[in-house]
């Protein structure tokens, strides 16, 4: 694999200046900021990510105020009490996206958030304290304990809330492939560990957040 110096120089050449490059890179939230996000907002964003998966984001986003209403502001204590009959009634509500599998995921993910909060004080504490050098471990945790959070849903959710993470998007995987780090999208434990190790090396060399390294890597792919 190429070192960070190559990655930085490539991106500088693409954007023409350090200032222009920095303007195109995301900035993650601090652990303190992640702790301040309420469990309700985490559940809302988690649910938004689930509904966005496979659907046009603008359509989902336009309906989200109605989702906030029917799911009681995504208060986990209230949402977790929503049983099958309640969800069946929501399937008749034309204001929202009527996808039963996705609707069922909301109270299930509310239970995960409540379980974490009981153990750690808040869901934000889990997100804030998880080391970025094992961010794939957090993806796996969310996929295992949550619902409909496989594939890219966990890393994309983390990016949405501001947790520092790389995202193995199409361009990032193409760049990893070009550097012979992996030959396909990382799904196995071995491939995920390999990709994490590569990002950890660039992180150690540069001090940059994982989300910036991920974006810079995507910029090395020519379309």
From TrEMBL:
Domain of life: Bacteria
GO molecular function: DNA-3-methyladenine glycosylase activity
GO biological process, one term: base-excision repair
Annotated protein name in UniProt: 3-methyladenine DNA glycosylase Tag
Record organism: Pseudomonas brenneri
């Amino acid at each position: 694999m190429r070192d960070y110096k190559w990655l930085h120089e490539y991106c500088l050449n693409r954007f023409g200046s350090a200032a222009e490059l920095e303007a195109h890179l995301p900035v993650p939230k601090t652990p303190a900021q992640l702790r301040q996000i309420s469990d309700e907002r985490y559940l809302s964003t988690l649910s938004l990510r689930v509904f966005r998966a496979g659907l046009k984001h603008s359509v989902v986003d336009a309906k989200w105020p109605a989702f906030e209403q029917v799911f009681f502001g995504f208060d986990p204590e209230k949402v977790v009490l929503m049983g099958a009959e309640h969800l069946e009634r929501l399937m008749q509500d034309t204001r929202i996206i009527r996808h039963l599998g996705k609707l069922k995921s909301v109270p299930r993910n509310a239970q995960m958030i409540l379980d974490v909060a009981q153990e750690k004080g808040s869901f934000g504490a889990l997100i804030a304290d998880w080391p970025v050098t094992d961010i794939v471990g957090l993806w796996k945790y969310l996929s295992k304990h949550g619902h409909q959070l496989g594939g890219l849903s966990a890393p994309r959710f983390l990016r949405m809330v501001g947790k520092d993470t790389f995202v193995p998007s199409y361009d990032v995987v193409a760049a990893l492939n070009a550097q012979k780090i992996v030959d396909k999208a990382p799904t196995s434990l071995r491939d995920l560990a390999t990709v994490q190790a590569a990002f950890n090396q660039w992180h150690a060399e540069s001090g940059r957040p994982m989300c910036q390294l991920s974006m810079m890597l995507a910029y090395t792919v020519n379309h």
